[in-house]
Design a protein that fits this description.
Layout (H helix, E strand, L loop, with lengths): L12 H8 L6 E3 L7 E3 L10 H16 L15 H6 L1
Antiparallel strand pairs: 1-2
Helix pairs in contact: 1-2
Length: 87
């Protein structure tokens, strides 16, 4: 929220993130003392880390376009998972 304090979507951030990140992103310890861990970013719908950024961005575009009567098309160059992440 501090980074978006003056953003037009501030009031929508909770809804956008709830919809975009409706899958787990577990933190997995790498050692017994839990000092180091990794965040697994492949549990999304397309099994790609891109699900995080792309789904959030699509949610932002959807809200910014509401009521305009215009269709937004997002074109991506992809080798497989980018298009699915955006969709």
């Amino acid at each position: 929220r501090p980074f978006a304090a003056t953003d037009a979507l501030l009031a929508e951030l909770t809804a956008i993130t709830t919809e975009a990140f409706d899958f787990p992103a577990p933190r997995v310890p790498l050692n017994a003392d839990d000092r180091y861990s990794v965040l697994e970013l492949f549990h999304g719908p397309t099994a790609a880390f891109k699900d995080f950024g792309a789904r959030f961005l699509a949610g932002c575009f959807e809200r910014l376009n509401r009521g305009s009567g215009r269709v937004v098309n997002i074109l991506v160059a992809t080798s497989g998972d980018t298009g699915g992440a955006v969709a």
